[in-house]
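note to self: the first set is below, dont mix up w the second
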Amino acid sequence: MAEPLIIVGKGMAATRLVDELSQRALGRYSIAVIGAEGRLAYNRVLLSPLLAGEIGEPDIELKPAAWWQARGVSTLYGRAVSMVDRAARTVTLEDGLTLPYGKLVLATGSKPLKPPFPGGELPGVATFRDTADVEAMRSFAERGARIVVIGGGLLGLEAAYGLARAGGHVTLLHLVDRLMERQLDAEGAALLASAITARGIAVRLNSATKGFVGTDTVEGVELQDGTIIPADLVVIAIGVRPNTDLARAAGLAVNRGIVVDDGMASDDDSIFAIGECAEHRGSVYGLVEPAYEQARVLAARLAGKSAAYAGSLLATNLKVSGVGVFSAGEFEAGEGAETVVLRDRFAGIYRKFVLREGRLVGCVLVGDTQGALFYLGLIRSGQDISAIRADLPFGEPYCVGKAA
């Protein structure tokens, strides 16, 4: 008889886990996937182009309904889990339904960070996390509303780009002196800011938010220096935090995320966690690739195979506000490191490589991300690249066959 396996969460990590399991252990488990959103699992990375109107809702779905049905997966959508009873090995849904599990996987993702700014509860103050947010935000943008986006990281830039493309008049506020400070050096960030400004988005750096003003609805954002920026809509996009509520209530070990070992198991050996909600060796990852790597490891373990997750090399490779951006490893040249840089400000291209003892340890590409996976492979391999040092900026065709 198939062992009941319940997956709480129906995002990208959960979908990849089911995909991997169907290839490794089809029939071994009776799988149920439970998600609070009442729709098929979708790709959150595509929310920005969806907001911009560049794609439609069917384009963001990860798998069609028939795919889940063909694998015998029960999908319970629009139904949130309210409790995990570890002693009884059951989960209870908000509607009262109780389901047994042999193995339980928490893929509960993350929640938007929303600091307690004064006026934060006013209508018109929003976050950018799901398709419901996209629908509400688009209604403002399409009528040419004044929109302030708070946050100059990946999430904020994606929101600003989508809103501007949809017709909004967008101002982007960022607390520090450069955009994407966790992925880009000062020069790369400045080039990105110029490209975003050229797309009609007003960028204000070193801008600390004090609160929001308005009576019946939000009317503006007040900065710490007293400046008030008029706004019909404010989008807070300063990051996310792991959604650990269910795990914490169940008594599992939780730090920043749900603490897991190299096999993605929690301190209860029948409960696992993957994706943005999981914390492994003190690290929480908010990117897709680590979630996929974790799903592969967990699928192998659930199939009875030996596998271990050793952590992920953080890499960003995507279009940010329509501009190609790639960053991996060390993006600042610390002590003992050297850099190789190619810059073409007229073309909007910046390519920086950080080397240490003849090995590539970091890379930043802005405007032209060709060869990103090649560079990522060099970083991961740790091979000596002294022979191709001068050719690095020109890409893989100039380097292949020359590396040591």
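second set (the one i keep forgetting abt)
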Amino acid sequence: MKMIMPAARRSIFLGLVVALVARAAAQQPAELIVRNGLIVTAVGRTEGDVRLRNGTIAEIGRNLTGGAGAREIDAKGMLVLPGGIDPHVHLTPTPTATTLKGADDYSSGSRAALAGGVTTISNFISPASTEDLPTALAHATELVKNQAIADVILHVMVNDPSKWSPADVTLLADRSFTLKIFLSRPAFDQNAAAYVKLIRAAGAAGLLTMLHCEDASILTTTAERMMAEGRGALKGQNFAQSRPVVAEEIATQRAVAISEATGAPIYIVHISSERAMRAAEVGQARGLPVFTEVRFLYLHLTKERFDEADGAIYTGDPPLREKSDADYLWSAIARGTGYVVDTDHVGYTREDKLDPSLNIINHRPAGNYLQVQLPLLYSEGVRKGRITLERMVALTSTNPAKLFGLYPRKGTIAVGSDADLVIWDPNQKRTIRNEEQLANAKFSIFAGWEVTGWPIVTIRRGEVVYQGGKILAAAGSGQLAPRQHWQRP
């Protein structure tokens, strides 16, 4: 089945995007001034005021004069940060009879994100075998229009590269969407040449390709052997041993080689180990367009968590690693070889994760993370001197904005940029609690952790959407964020 792009369907898709942007713009309040805060971007900080008008930043300065009817927020003693951008989120906007109750759609995912200081989230589209790409994108756009509160970017998973036509690549290039490919699945080895051709075509069209880097042959043979030996249960170190570091390292080396051979930019998702990060750094040192993402979990947790009685709640692909790996990842994001920190959020309840029928092959990776990522990064990173505040902004806002075609519309605080701001109390002490989670799962593996620093107001395109622990905007007020081609951070 070739994915054809009829002109009429393409026009319908583009028309939906235009209508969505126009509708959202019409809902913005006239003017809001955030006063007296410490304004922080990836390149510096300054005290002052920010004037927000009609959804964008109109002026930055000191002692700004309020216009008639302008609303004001006094941010004295607070940080004013660009809204967070999480480019790695998995949502389920069209649940079925088999959908787990913890799964989030665009609405519940938005609520969790906005409460955590994230104003732009993402989702992955996996077109059905009977569905062409324009139809899948139009359907996804309509779901964003009806459900989202945060703004949204979309990525497209490639399950069979032989079904992709040049017209499909052109369609994605027109919207600057992103591809996602799994080296961790046997299909990659079975169709490697077709995948490499698609990565090359995407790069030539100005598209970024996301790669999940674990070697499928090592994963498959290791897990099959362990199952045969009776070590398939999600107990102790079984899960960590079933997905060894070498599988991640060799797949990362392969990804770097593909980038070198094709000239295409690649974005390696959720790097978990020192060896994989060093493999990516080899490519970076040669000037290749190799960009890396660190799933925030790997900064805070190590594989000893799997030894707990409920250790299966920590399963994720790749698994948690050694403390030395976490230390190296902290150094990488501080030095700049790690470009993005995000979540790989998937909505699972505690019961979903601890289902006794699961094993090292059939498991539920990731979990409910959107609401806690920024508070943990600030408390464990900035407060403890591991990264600067400016670096936190770069990792969670500016760099993803550049890599995913949103900058300078998003990812910074500048005149003309979208008015996506977070007012952050740097001294507020909070304990993460399950009952305060706004995602459907109502469960966090970080419940009980104490953090210092918390988002108290979230503003999306000039509208206060989160304050006082409550979401103040309706589903459907979010939009599919317009994108350009990627740029190097």
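remember for set 2: The chain is about 35% helix and 20% strand.
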